[in-house]
NADH-quinone oxidoreductase subunit I
Amino acid sequence: MGMFDPLKGFGVTFSMMFKKVATEEYPEIGAPAAPRYHGRHQLNRHPDGLEKCVGCELCAWACPADAIFVEGGDNTEDARYSPGERYGMDYQINYLRCIGCGLCVEACPTRSLTMINFYEIADDDRQRLIYTKEDLLAPLLPGMEQPPHPMRLGNSEQDYYVNGPELARGRGVPTGETVETAHEEVIG
């Protein structure tokens, strides 16, 4: 150890004293997350307000941490929550167990479960870290009301289910054309 080493250390401290401090006011001003960051889960809706979740429980089966609980229920004509026969009656995600791997999103056949870029999930109460369906469900847009019974799909979902995922993205199928007629044109 040299005799001037403490002076070198004080020199670094003295030079940093006059630089502008880069303090983040985090709790008051939240830092924006990256657009593709996968944070909290969200259960999406169709454009007409119906839930996309059909209660198939594939997300719960795909979860390696066993953090998801889904119980499906049957739609009736009086109470319709999704366009199909079933809906997710009880949906819970335990964020004490969730590892954020995204396998549940990949397993969802209706694209109802996604991960948004909200990252403030930490809490000091264990019970509040179990998110229920009401916590996870996407809010209704202004002017959108839950329809009483129609089995409708929005334009993008209708194109997806009628024409298939590749053809619905605009790869060769004009509006109103089905998969069969598109394949006939390609083959024929």
In short: The first helix runs from residue 5 to 16. The chain has two domains: 37-139, 153-183.
